[in-house]
Specification:
Elements (H helix, E strand, L loop, with lengths): L1 H30 L9 E5 L7 E3 L4 E9 L11 E6 L8 E5 L10 E3 L6 E3 L2 E3 L3 E11 L10 E21 L15 E2 L2 E3 L4 E10 L4 E10 L4 E3 L11 E9 L2 E2 L1 E2 L3 E3 L4 E9 L6 E21 L1 E3 L4
Parallel strand pairs: 2-22
Antiparallel strand pairs: 1-3, 3-9, 4-6, 4-10, 5-9, 7-8, 10-12, 10-21, 11-13, 13-14, 14-20, 15-21, 16-17, 16-19, 16-21, 18-20
Length: 308
Amino acid sequence: MAIKQKLTIATLFVTIILFSGCVSETQDLEVGAFVGGSEGLSVYFKAGSPPNEIFETAEFPIILNIENKGETDITQDKPATIYIEGIDVSETGFDIVDINDAPITDAPNKIYKLKGIEKIGNQIIPGEKTELIFKSKGFKGSLSGDYKPTIIGRICYPYETKAITRACVKQNLLNQGFKNKCEVTGVKETYVSGAPIQITHVEQIPLSKTKYGFFIQLENQGSGTPYLPGTDCSGDNNIIKIKDIELEGKKGSCTIDELYFEDNKAKVLCEVDLTQEVTEYKGFLKINLEYEYSQSTSREFTVLSIPG
């Protein structure tokens, strides 16, 4: 009987260790799933496109390179839109067409698939790249002298920022003991996906026995400007939407769902009402932001007039 009891206790002890190991491994996998970084899509003109100098009647290429350096995929349902701006495309300006020979004034070009960077185990898979090819058929007007325009390639794309924070979950938030497994107040460790809008600070605050408060600070660390989803990067700018926030699967709410940025920074207070039977443990707070992001690249070149 004594031997059987010892075996049972030993088996239970091993089971607890194995179970604890599984939980820890799952948590590490979840919080370590992000590559991180402060970029979404990058856009730039290919070298020599357009050339530094061209004659007014000459054709020349305009090639934009686009790469997804963040962790949100561009998809058929949520494409990116490319605009060529900054130069005259009127009847007396440049005659610019896309790869299908369609004038860029007809409709903007779109990218329907561009996967972001991805972390699989310890391997980081780079995001996809593409290039959009345009062509100028020449300057349709007449020049009295050399002309130095600046061409702008602008991109508008939908993106998301996801974050996971280790929060302290307790049966009673107001019951503070001497031997706490975690602290219900204070700044919490946060893991954020690669995106231009970053969550830089999450502080947990107990609001009642079962109500968790989270003071969240955000920063636009990219080179562009955020807009609300579905606006095509128009209307009010420097504004994003909080898509959802949840603690251990329980949905929460924030004092405001649409956040305005001032000097590239924003802050908000969110809360989750969660009743737990477990005395105390470290749980997961998940935050998801969505927005559209507009950024651009530019290049100056010289159009040489032809005397005559």
